[in-house]
Amino acid sequence: MKRLEEERVITKRVTLLNPERLGLELIVFVSIKTSEHSEEWLSNFAKVVHDMPEVVEFYRMTGEVDYLLKLKVENMAAYDRAYKRLISQVRITDVSSAFAMEEIKHTTSLPLKVIN
Question: What is the pLDDT of residue 115?
């Protein structure tokens, strides 16, 4: 294990919590489009998003959407507060949200090949 940590194959050790038991029952996928593409804007946007504990995943995308966020929140009111906090701090062209009705598969495992 120590060798894998030194080689940065293992980057963290974590405890996985049950979000439902913590009252985090709503999963929201937020698609963001922006007309801003400067390094300064991205740096500010990334800082704002990193400071939002509700955001559990954050990606820069190709295609129609510029960024994709995954949030875990208690309910719609909690999402609305997070949304308002985000748009008050960052200029965004378009925000579209989709709410997960059911989580069918979720894993933190990576698809590792078995080496003989």
Answer: 57
HSE (side-chain half, CA atoms, 13 Å) at 109:
6
**What's the total number of domains in the chain?**
1
- Comparing CA positions, the residue from 55, 58, 53, 81 lying closest to residue 68 is 58
Q: How far apart (Å, rounded) are the C-alpha atoms in residues 67 and 62?
A: 8
Q: 59-89: per-residue pLDDT in tens?
A: 999 999 999 999 999 999 999 999 999 999 9
Supply the CATH number for residue 50's domain. Answer: 3.30.70.920
State the residue range of the domain holding 30: 20-99
- pTM for this model (two decimals): 0.89
Burial class, 54, CB count within 10 angstroms (exposed 0-12 / middle 13-18 / buried 19+): buried
> Which backbone phi and psi does 65 adopt, to 5 degrees?
-105, 140
Integer distance in angstroms from the first to the last C-alpha of the chain? 19
